[in-house]
Please model this.
Amino acid sequence: MKRGLDSMFSKKSFYIVLGLLVFGIVAGAVYAVEYHYADEIFVNIEGVDDPMTLQEAIDEGEIGGVEDGDIEVDDSDKVKKVARTSYATCLLMKDGKVKCTGHNGVGQVGIGTRPSGSTYHFRTVALGDWIEATNIHGMGRSFFIEYEDNSGQTRLMAWGRNSHGGLGVGDTNHKYVPTRVLGGLLNLKQFAVSDNSRNHGKQQHRCALLDDGKVRCWGYNARGQVGDGSTTQRTTPRYVINEDGEHLENVERVFVGGYYTYGYSCALVREDTEDLVPYCWGSNSHGQLGIAQNEHRNYASRIYLPSGLANKNFVNMSLTGQAYPTTCAVVGSEDREERDREVWCWGRNNRGQVGNGETGTNEYKPQNVDVPNARYTRNVFTERDLSCAIVFAGDVYCWGRSSRGSRGDGTCTTNHGYPEQVMYGSGSGYRLRRVTDLQIISGGYGYTSVCALIHPDDHFNGGHVYCWGDNARGQLGRGYSGTSCGSNDVEYARPVLGIDNAVAIYGDKARKNGYEQSYCALLETGDVKCWGYNHHGQIGTGASETHINVPTKPIIN
Model:
């Protein structure tokens, strides 16, 4: 990412001023070190007008014999990734530590105790001195981290709610400190959880893809969500099998959706033809498996497109994390420049979220969605009763329910079974463009909000966040709360206040009552700002305000 030096050096920095001999340079020379995004070190040299990178300073003879490792920069309060779940938030710091805040009723803050209430600022999780987390995930009322053991293999640790063995630690007791996931999960390639915490995530399953191309799942299994051929609850990971009873192999990506009796999973498998094809298993309550039958599957079953399209390549998938599951997929070449992509959806269609022009009828087979410029599709998203796609030039199209403006097309009450383009400002023909990511939060009452990240390198709006839809808790970040169309501007995308350098966005997964929603943005400086629902202290401001209407930097100790 390229930015002007003036822009970069307006950010918060850490300075080290040296008034001594540095590896042979003239005594008394002074320089200041600035630490920014991408782990790049910049320096200000006394007597030199423009700042330069450390390597440039060495190359030009301003500093001699110094390498990156010779300068220690304190990055302990810089964030690498955010994980959000039911009334709690965790931050993966750049130094590998993890800090959490929010509701801690089942130990999900990970500090070793179970207080009766919540924490209201970020506290350090008890990982142990030797563990440095490399990734973090949140689901329900639990969190998972990835880390490397002494042999360099990637493993999982988990803490929080453990109903039905969802932590994979061999029992069903809640864990107040990180505990290693069992079942031989070595050389983890991808970990997948449902984008959901409805009813606090009491009954859910998880899946892990290992580097041998096989998948293991565990947790709640009443409808075959684990995919091991049974409906028995599993407290440790078990191999997913195919219809022949053999391990599902050559998997490149795995996805987890739904919760409780609606839980299901899908995987993209690389076939001998080099195509990626989908297999799904678990609950089929609304046709979300796409197998053309109304029955659950406790093993992985192949999904087929209509006759004549069976060999189409599946690029990506999105699984609803709610009790009204819909599945969508991007189909076509893995190289988007081939311009041959399509969008297909199936499953629950009560609000038109399948996108085939119909409403009210579940679809048990994949349905083609007529998205304008679909051949350029970058990604597809679905949650409860709303689906969206990012297509050419970062334009966004959504279909399904538009309660409180969630479709972003200027309407608030009409359900549409076909795509409508998201507009910004007051509409008037202004298309929201250059979008690289979406976060959809859909509540238990169907109240949905959506936030979009604008491409960081966009010349005018790079790193901005635009939101639309439900704003009952100030989750649109506009400085006020309200849900009425027209008077509260919820039906069009509008910029979140005070954010112009975001590199990632994250949505709170607490959806029990529909409007308990909040978002966070990770900034290029390694700082975080959050806004929206905060009753349990999940934004980490030190207090329990019901909602925060503008992006706010949390307290990180």
The longest helix spans residues 54-59. The two ends are 29 Å apart (CA to CA).
